[in-house]
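Q: Predict the bound structure with adenosine-5'-triphosphate.
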Amino acid sequence: MNEHTGFRRSLETIGVALLAIFLGLLASSVFVIIAGSNPVDAYQRLFCEGFGARGCETFGNLLVQTVVNEDTGESQTVFSPLHGTGGHSLALVLERATPLILTALSATVAFKAGLFSIGMDGQFVLGALAAAFLGYWFPAQLYTLFGVTDPELAPEALKTIMHIIVPAVCLGAAMMAGAFYSWIAGYLKVKLNINVLISTIILNAIAVQFVGYMVNYPLRSDMNNIARTARIDETAWLIPFNRGLFANADIEWFSGSRLGVGFIIAVVAAVLVWYFLYRTTRGYEQRMVNGSPLFARFSGIPGTHAMLRAMLISGALSGIAGAIEVIGVERRIVDGFATAGTGFDGVLVAILARESIVGILFVAPFIAGLEQGAINFQFGNLPRQLGNIIIALIILFNAMEYFLRSYIAAIWRKRHIFSGKSITPAPTEASS
Amino acid sequence: MTNAIEMRGIRKYFASTQTLAVDGVDLAVAPGEVHALVGENGAGKTTLMSILYGMVSPDEGEIFINGNRAHIKHPNDAIRNGIGMVHQHFKLVPSFTVAENIMLGIERNRAGFVNSRAESDDVRRLAAEFGLAVNPNQRVADLPVGMQQRVEILKTLQRDARILILDEPTAVLTPQEVNELYTVIRKLADTGRAIILITHKLLEVKAAADQVTIMRRGQHIGTYPVAGLTVNEMANQMVGRTVLLDVEKTPAQPGDTVISAENLLVAANGGVPAVFGVSFEVRRGEILGIAGVSGNGQTELVDAVAGMRPVESGEIRFLNQIITNCTVRERRIAGMAHIPEDRMDTGLNLKTTLDENVISTAYYREPFSRGWRFQFEEVRAFAQRVIDSFQIKSASVKGSIRTLSGGNLQKIVLGRELEGHPKFIIANQPTRGLDVGSIEFVHKTLIAARDAGAAVLLISVELEEIMSLSDRIAVMYEGRITGILDGETATEQNIAILMTGGSLDDAVHAGAVS
Ligand SMILES: Nc1ncnc2c1ncn2[C@@H]1O[C@H](COP(=O)(O)OP(=O)(O)OP(=O)(O)O)[C@@H](O)[C@H]1O
Ligand SMILES: [Mg+2]
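A: Predicted complex:
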């Protein structure tokens, strides 16, 4: 039961996205030129750093690449996305995309219920805090409980069980923290009709300050000159692929990245959210409330419940994102983590993907890659902010959907005239 | 004399719904002529006019304005060519004032700021010129529909429209407002303007138009001088078969009371009381009509009965249960159905598909779902059944409903509300915007529901509809029921007297209990 019917419409949506990316890059080249560089070279570097395999030099290398076998000295042509020697940047992209997927799903669930919540940031950092605290404190309690004095010497059986229980507890707690925090905004909306956009902005600010305080004072672990929490116990880790599943297979593609169970959780969450929204009565309720609140009331759809439920789910997803970032990647919270704005990037991804779940799975890695490319990127005297400029411009062009769509529709029409058909498909005409 | 407009061989195919909406239609309108455009729901009337107004681009065909070939690609081109359109669903900005709406896009400014004093004066002058009294400084959201329509008409006149398209202008008006509108239309025609009038009310065509063009399934059936055609002939040509304009029904055989209201006091949106101590009852197998000029508390009364508005005091009983404070869902589960006045925002969710619209009142229970999971086969079958039994044209189960014609949208609402064999049906303006064939269909359906034992509360501003369907007629005036008449013996005159607050000493009082 999706709103967009028709293959053509999906094609058009993809066309709009690609056009927006192209125009965003085109417009950003002004800045590259001002900085005195050649845009084509700069973008090649950017994309290679973001998405390429080791040794990527040109746009073409993103797909095929010639590599020299070190042992035999022979050169051969390979399909570069799968060329993993020395670790592939795509693994890092997916690692970086994991929290983006989850926070974008979180935003989408709220948006689909007609609630413009941008509280992902606050829920994300609270989830992270919960995981960072429990990932350190909970195993310590368990060791004491079982009389283990040195974790190194803990019995294997206990460790195995803890490897399952502790991450689950961290994820569960983060989920509840995020859900509760989001629920506050939902409650304010339902009871006092306070605009969700405004309440979530305020809640974000509070959460970010709170986590900053916790990291600097109560949970500060040492006198390192950048405040940080204690490192979580090893049993709290979400296992990365290159240490777990594929540790023995020695797949180089994953090496250097902490891509792992967290990514699987994100993809599973995407499937579940899609199923929930489009295949269950509860998801239906949420979407109907969005379509028209009057209609929902008239039909007897419990709108209040639907909105609160949407906020709870949305918050839980962001909370999980925060937990995965800590127990899957960072292992602790370092001062500055809270202000990085990962949650807000999720909102951008959701908007760019037009609240489409499949779209999120493509847009999140794309944005992650651009960000990563920009960070690693050293080119002439170009600032690292180039990545952000490009992203901002793509979003801007993407917002011109109506205009781009009619442009694409015009191309279609021409094509049909040339091919001699008299039928003119016209997609976006207004009619009563 | 050259025609003000001439459309030749217009054709439009919508690929998204695979509908040939307009199929080689010719239309010519002379200056000073009121030209009616009639046809069934989905016949392509709105599409044809949208083409003339530049909102839809035709696949084939030519348009001539005053004898010159015109290329109208955008409403701005149409406005430049002196064409103005009042849409089926108004397109005003609710939060703007009347003057701001009329001057939208052509603001009078002084040093870059909107000169609202001058704008108000302009609007006042314009309104006086055409006898369309409005208050330029009132917010559009606060205006009754009749007024909003005046604003729409003034908007086109401010842009110097010589050709005026009115898409179903009377569907939402009271008889009084309708008469005023036709006076204005005639006045505009007398100034040499060409008027195209889309309507489903054939009596109005007879009364107000000079020529009539009949469309059926996108095709041009014929253009005739109105004087040479009876209403029945028009209806038959439109539908392609003989239509019964008079309702056939047997006398009611009322049974037990299904719903009763006792001394209801209901407040309007601002908190001011709108319904003062209304009592009525509807019995099994009976249609109680509520007549009245719109805005006399009918909306609030219906909302209260349907559970969408709190009752300040009084009591509602449904099948011997007190439901005064029950939720909408509880009422629906008990067997209440509701055809709302406003299908665009209340009755339907235009953002989604047909199937999701027809299950909105019962999605949470069998057969449509089990627990949280939808039973998509059942949903699909039900949606298909609604499409088939209500003959909703160019609709599909999974299709978006946004592009359906007004009449077809109403059929979706009817399908949803009537398919479940409700015990009590609130029908608020159930035939608004429907073509004669569909009206016949709706009337038959309501009577069939009555004969099957349902109680029906019918609210309509169409006196004729009330009179031909109701077994008893309650008349509302200023929030009170001023009299309940027997449907058989009530006369138009008696109702009209009660509707305007008069009293009937000699009328037959059927009373609350007859
Ligand atoms: N933009 C669109 N895309 C696809 N189909 C459309 C579009 N606009 C109209 N249609 C279809 O074309 C047909 C003609 O519609 P139109 O609105 O012109 O009917 P109408 O004669 O005005 O009917 P009504 O009296 O109910 O308003 C309908 O079947 C409708 O579903
Ligand atoms: Mg129409």
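A: DSSP finds 17 helices and 24 strands in chain B.
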